[in-house]
Amino acid sequence: xxxxxxxxxxxxxxMQEVPIPAIGKKDILVRVKAAGIxxxxxxxxxxxxxxxxxxxxxxxxxxxxxxxxxxxxxxxxVGDRVGLxxxxxxxxxxxCSAGNDQFCSSVKMIGHHVxxxxxxxISIPARNAVPLPDEISxxxxxxxxxxxxxxxxxxxxxxxxxxETVAIFGLGGLGLSAIQLAKALGAVEIFAVDIKEDKxxxxxxxxxxxxxxxxxxxxxxxxKLTDGKGVxxxxxxxxxxxxxxxxxxxxGVMGRAVIVGINQTPLxxxxxxxxxxxxTEIIGSNDHLLHELPLLMDMARRNILDTSHVVSQVIxxxxxxxxxxxxxxxxxxxxxxxxxxx
Length: 342
Fold this sequence. Notes:
The chain has 342 residues and is of the alpha/beta class. It is 29% helix and 25% strand. The strands form 4 sheets. Strands 3, 5, 6, 9, 10, 17 and 18 form a 7-stranded mixed β-sheet that branches. A 6-stranded parallel β-sheet has the order 13-12-11-14-15-16, with helices on both faces.
């Protein structure tokens, strides 16, 4: 089969002919119908994260059709439409049993530690397959497996309750999903922070109040718009020191700040004024959980989560085109959401 593979860090991905992967007794073989191109893939190609092996097939946002099943598989059948949870865990350890599969001691991410979805086929444990409703396209289903799932997990970590107010910092795929999901979970007012007008317009479309962080201090503006109270929940999805600080500073009494964006710079806050005085919390949010995905799929099926504007470009399984898209992501020259369709 054809696969687009990372052979060496810092070099373009290459098209290679590789064997169709074998499956074990509890595995399934999936014919890839769509694989999203994520910003993380640009980081991997650049060598900014240690890979589980080289060469490796990238692509962790995957949807497709079950082609073959192992002899012990009972949860899916040949021909089923599925999205694939990208964290492959053992399913038996304490963390897996507790539902925290991203902390499994043997967890491996497809497209990072083991072969992913920039290929015609992928082998994966059957427990990672999530039914993909007919109402959701393969292209949209693939993107749900990353950005939207991570947004839902962050809101659940925030313990968002109906009637609360929310601020979302960063309006990429995660942020726009977070606006819709926060609204569905009962948020009464949502503030959306970014520096790009096209993203702010999309936030308005989904019912959020836009704040251009390039023109205003976002935390000060949020306090102004809430009569000095601040918000109950603030979520940072960019990974910049400035927006991380503003996320915390925008909180009101008993507010919860959830940090999703990745940055190596220490976060500095005033302990009394920012945390102790109002009993606020800073919470880390890492990936998402397998058991959250059926809920996400149902929300997309019911159009509570609108996936119609998610995918901007569909490209074939072509090394040159995929490398071009990764170049755009690495250089921040284009924000379109691209999906590979083998």
